[in-house]
User: Fold this.
Amino acid sequence: MPITDWPSAERPREKLLARGASALTDAELLAVVLRTGLVGGTAVDLARDALSHFGSLRALLRADRTELCRLPGFGESRYAQLQATLEIARRHLSEALAGREALKDPGAVRRLLQARLRDREHETFAALFLVK
Assistant:
């Protein structure tokens, strides 16, 4: 059944608008980004299948292009769409961190380093030189 036939309160986009993004499951959030499904399946079905294949939203977003594009319903365009969404989120976090004053506590340092180094495919060494 197409999403347009679902009750309004159960449709991912309408649910997001009415209750906020935090009310959606990972599959529903991903479906909003993907916008469409495959013939015979909704965007939510497509999102659930991809999440099931990779095991988590994080793993799906970190998937290499070739592996993601092998999934039915995913290709270069969808890969680019997900990578752009991920980069928007990274830049949002970077702006939030950059707008703050100095790194005043260990938690702020942790958030900064996580935002910058989290998705590296190899171990990375970083040094912070803090000036008083």
Remarks:
- The longest helix spans residues 76-98.
- The chain has a mean pLDDT of 87.
- The two ends are 61 Å apart (CA to CA).
- The helical segments are 12-19, 26-34, 43-54, 57-62, 65-69, 76-98, 106-117.
